[in-house]
Hints:
By secondary structure, the protein is α/β, with parallel strands linked by helices. 37% of the residues lie in helices and 24% in strands.
Amino acid sequence: MTHVTAPSSFADPLSDADIVLIVSGGIACYKVCECVRLLKRAGSRVRVVMTEAACEFVTPLTFEALSGEKVHVGQFCDGIAHIDLARKADLMIVAPATANTLAKIAAGLADNLATSTVLAAACPVAVVPAMNVNMWRAAPTQRNIERLRQDGRLVWGPAAGELACGTSGEGRMIEPAQIVEYARSALSPKPLAGRSAIVTAGPTFEAIDPVRAVTNLSSGKQGYEVARALSSLGAEVTLISGPTALAAPLGVHRVDVRSACDMQSALESAASRIRSERGREVDLFVSVAAVCDWRIQNASESKLKKSEAGLPKLELTENPDILATFAAAHPQVVCVGFAAETENVAEHARVKLDKKHCAMIVGNDARKALGSENNALVFVTAAGVESLAEMSKAACARSIALRCATLLGAAR
Ligand code: CTP
């Protein structure tokens, strides 16, 4: 076995990205302040261009303080600022994009600094609509959106829900965290485009009776991050999740399950759906779930009562090994497992590599990973062992996804 120490961090596509944020005049301007904060936190440079109408909602000073950059406002105040902004940008985001600004961009107008900057863009441009439901549904707006899509502009949202005008419906700007997630995905290379993947995540929940269960401390964070990272590399991802408090990553199809047996049947159903849709097996299965090894054989249909039963005698029976069973039955699928250990991580992971018929086992220290934002991984393949330094679960997930892309490339 060869040991390699890999670089300690796997770049977030947002780190060092140059993002131009075009803010047009709508009430959702206040939410875009949070976008700037989140993008800055991820390491991006954010330069803001505001229309004059946007300044009625939020002051340039707010964006200046958040971005640490001069804010460009209004007409053509800075000579060729629009060309300079556009030349350096990796991504341009128009948020909020009002019906008026959308229409101007769709028509190719350049009558202020914001629209001129968009027209001068050589990078991907995303519009994030925010408007009243009737304005959104209006035929001209829908024509403009269609035209923007045909021009290769990205359209993020809108969402449906409560609107600032007091009504509800479609037209609400998507949330800042979603904008940031879309931005990350837009900037990611797409080595997994056209590939399909299934990820299991979270704990399983083995019923004792209708109100009690045996479970474990898995939060599901690492699995959800793996699903997100695979999706941002272009894969079509189905996430089969035990009970967690997490929201599904954007663009990922989530299937909720409770027990290990449910998880196993959801996995088989997802694999057969993908087989019939694509005419071939799913490309990748990443088993991150902390599956309970045992379930209660004599689980009760009704709530166990203290007075009647005294101390209940629970009989355990073994759960199926979901990963090992699936990998043995689907040798064409690249299978990646986890090994949650408390000692000798690499050695135990090496044993699981063969036992579970996997192309790679990702070992981690269960005591450190559980409930934490960070993880420290050991990758074990037939070629050897690679250890990574401790990093965020999101960064770990990106390194896992990149390795999955390499494994799929080799299996092509
Ligand atoms: N796994 C599974 N089904 C199970 C148990 C585990 O699919 N019933 C998967 C996990 O998702 C993980 C890998 O198998 O990818 C290893 O899980 P782990 O809990 O580390 O090991 P176990 O196989 O349960 O063995 P042990 O508890 O003895 O270490």
